[in-house]
Amino acid sequence: MGKNKRILKNAVAILCAATLMFSALIGCKKEGNSQSNGSESNDKGPFKITIMLPTFTADTMNPESPALKALEEYTNTDIEFIWVPNASYNDKMNVTMASSDLPMMMYVPNKSSSIINAVKAGGFWEIGPYLKNYKNLSKANEIILYNTSIEGKVYGIYRGRPLGRNGIIIRKDWLEALNMEAPKTMDDFYNMLVAFRDKDPDKNGQNDTYGMIVTKFSGPFFNMSVWNGAPNKWGIDENGKLYPEHMAPEYMETLKLFKKMYDEKLINQDFAVMDSAKWEEPFINNKAGVIIDVLDRGRRLSEKFEDMGTNQTVEVVGTIEGPKGRRSLPTSGYAGFFMFPKSSIKDEATLDKVLTFVDKTNDEEALNIITNGVEGRHYRKLDGYIEKIDDPNIPDNELADFQQLLTGVNEDNKALGVKTTPMRQKVDDLMKENEDYVVANPAEPFISETYSKRGPQLDAIIEDAMVKYIVGQIDEAGYQAELDLWLRSGGQQYIDEINAEYAKAQANRSN
Fold first, then answer.
1. H/E element, 50
2. 440 to each of 229, 255, 269, 281, 488, how far by Cα in Å?
3. Stretch (H or E) spanning 117
4. pLDDT digits (tens, 9 = 90+) for 79-116
5. Is the CB of residue 19 less than 8 Å from the CB of residue 119?
6. Cβ distance 140 to 131 under 8 Å?
């Protein structure tokens, strides 16, 4: 896995979790149901559980949905969903934070100061020590658990997303026209950009192409920086202290490489002002042949070319070899998480029932119900795949927002899916492969008060300095002066606070 992966393994043990505390009696509740708590646990019949989730539809899930009934039967539960419109979810969460009438299981979009304060006040169950007791929850990804943690402890079950989602998207027809293979090393990558600039890859007889499209979004730079050996957001020095990525020598080397690419017109000269909404246009219009972004974009572009009926094709690459081997910039790996308030879960016995429910939702049968609904009503099986049943007499709200319940902590278990395409399969395989090379951010769980207040200002100093250096408005000494300004403007306090949180998490780990 490499040094960074080992750093991650050590950091992961710190495992902190975070989440929100809220809940309101807003949304669609099952008529006649009252919220259960620890004292209301019923061993004789289905276990009653209340769950707060965001909704993205006006017509929320029908409490009598056959799919919901099937999940209740499978898990032996009586589920009461409290649906809150996604646009107002944070507001509702904060409004109801002080309520004593909380659901037993709450979706939390992110770690906020109010959630962290609620955790510190003892408002949520620390679930980390219990996960090993469940067949699916015990397989939760340690990197993602660490990313959601609070002060070295896990309080939430994440809603998983691919960690290894980033990669390289290339015009495959251009590679073939130039008799080239997809890059395997950083030198290959650079040489490919040169060839796309110089060798008329679209064969129109004109010198009108360049290598890679870059926009105001700085993701391509940070992907390349990690390839080049720099840390992901924060590194750990020889004394065990955290330092920001822009202080790493490999970061500076990547900045020099980006400047070289700009000077040689291997990237678009308007990158600093180019809207990321227009990212794909030069790729589609035969102007440039490379995008560094999430691999999903490569799949979408491939499908778009097929719909257009052109000869344009797409290649996708997960990561490439750099000075320190193959390395990949990960996502955070989650889209919110579920937390478990102590005010509604009074004892360990009730917590066990709630966690058992979450565990069972990760069984393949439950995943299939949540994802696809009921066989014969919502889908039919075809040779190991499914075909959705399009019946206008079946209301959409039978499955509306049901997938908001998915956690995906056991990646080995899958719901039945529609028949895949070679490109979709390749993207899925690459995202999984990338997980072996992801470079963890050891400071991912930590929150700095200074950064909470001055984050946009601090980020702007670094981003402006990057652009100025790349386009030649400042030299290396000028860039260093901007880093000194960053330190004086709150950067040093930011570093100190992150290190204090890191030390606290390490202390909690050893206790």
1. strand 47-55
2. 12, 21, 32, 32, 27
3. helix 113-120
4. 999 999 998 888 888 777 777 789 999 999 988 878 88
5. yes
6. yes
